[in-house]
Amino acid sequence: MDIEAEVKDALRAYDRSLVEYRGLREALEQEIPLHLRQWGVPYFRVEARVKKRGSFEEKVRRDPTKPVLDMVGVRVMAFFRSDLAQVEKMTRRLFEVVEESYIDKGDLLGDESFGYRSVQFVGRTRGQGVFADFPAGLPVEVQIRTMLEHVWAEVEHDFRYKPQSEPPNPEINRRFALTAALLEQADRNLDAIRRELED
What we know:
Blueprint: H1 3-38, E1 44-50, H2 53-62, E2 72-78, H3 84-94, E3 96-104, H4 105-109, E4 119-124, E5 139-146, H5 147-160, H6 170-198
Parallel strand pairs: 2-5
Antiparallel strand pairs: 1-2, 3-4, 4-5
């Protein structure tokens, strides 16, 4: 089978499944906040999305043999870094985690580096519990980060990695690193303030 035929088959499957994908997105946006509160995480933001058809097609064209596992994605942003472990535990209860997909971006930076930090992995619906209305095995890309990490990721992606006619200015790179360090310190400061107020 040629690539064009495989792409057309994949797009037909996408179109057939779109209603299901949208239903799962809505269920994620409804259920995850309820569970976060039950797990004692009061300050957060949850965003879910369905991969757009054009983005899906681009991904299939890059490698038609590779399954697309981020058709539905959910991003959970905690206001406090100290809540991230609880967010991850809760998410692992809702999904069957594909362990080989697990990435902690912070581990990739090293001890002396600052920048984008986030935990992400693919979870699959269990076909029971809160997502019982959906078949078992539907993949969901999960991202877990703090709100400040989210701000950093959005700004860095839009400004630092957009196509440029000239190589990046070293001073710009230095200021990006400084800003990343300040945001990481701000996350730690917020946790410290919270602990003092709770004590």
